[in-house]
Amino acid sequence: MPMRILTLMPAFAWFLAIAPSAAMAQQVNGCVQSELTNPARVVYTCEGGLVLEAEAAAAFDIGSGSQGRPQSAELSGKGVLVEVEPGSGPFQILTPQAIAAVRGTVYAVDVEDAVTSVFVVRGEVGVSRPNGSEAVALAPGEGVTVTTGEPLVVKRWPQEKVDRLLARFAR
């Protein structure tokens, strides 16, 4: 190796060690993005008490919003756990099959193939079709599976199903 490269290598290594990683703290539509492991997921911490925790492989896009806080996000594959501070304003997850809207709660949305599932951990979530029809309200422990052509039926989810879903977010 040329002497110049050998001289620069320690300086470059030192820079990498102390410089913050771009993957560790990026801005995405007013939210700070960070990564977690075990299981792998991406966390978006937004103004006004909004936290979105998406599976690493999630097909997920955060919309822009007012006052530095998004008011919606689109999810077309995998899952996201949503925490909205009560009184912080509306927020909704848009999927190909459903809209999950909330004002203050913790809930999970999962999209797989042509199915959207929504489960509420805390608070209340309204779920409807993308055109706003067939709206249902979910309370803690309740979920709904949304598919084209099937009615929206609110059910209390078995603990095993809840545990499997929340384990994807290290809960």
Automatic annotation (TrEMBL):
Top-level taxon in the UniProt lineage: Bacteria
Establish whether keyword Transcription is in the entry: no
- Identify this protein by name: FecR protein domain-containing protein
Annotated ranges, domain FecR protein: 49-125
Q: Which GO terms describe its molecular function?
A: sigma factor antagonist activity
Question: Do you know which Gene3D superfamilies this protein is assigned to?
Answer: 2.60.120.1440
InterPro entries tied to this protein: FecR (IPR006860), Ferrdict_sens_TM (IPR012373)
Check the record and name the Pfam families matching this protein: FecR
Leader sequence range is 1-25
Query: What are the entry keywords?
Result: Signal
